[in-house]
Design a protein that fits this description.
53 residues, single chain, mainly alpha
Length: 53
């Protein structure tokens, strides 16, 4: 019998600078693909976020 892999459920807490992350990703892809990519991150209202959960 093979060893079974343990399932790990990631837990994410805190905030994350989404605009900066996606701007960096867009810059990398823009250079690689020789195109211009722009990103706009929109924040949703707290009520909408809770309703989605």
């Amino acid at each position: 019998m093979g060893a079974e892999k343990e399932k790990v459920q990631p837990v994410i807490t805190g905030t994350f600078p989404a605009q900066r992350f996606f701007d960096t990703l867009a810059a990398i892809l823009s250079r690689r693909e020789n195109v211009t990519i722009t990103v706009t991150v929109k924040q949703i209202e707290e009520q909408q976020r809770k309703a989605a959960v």
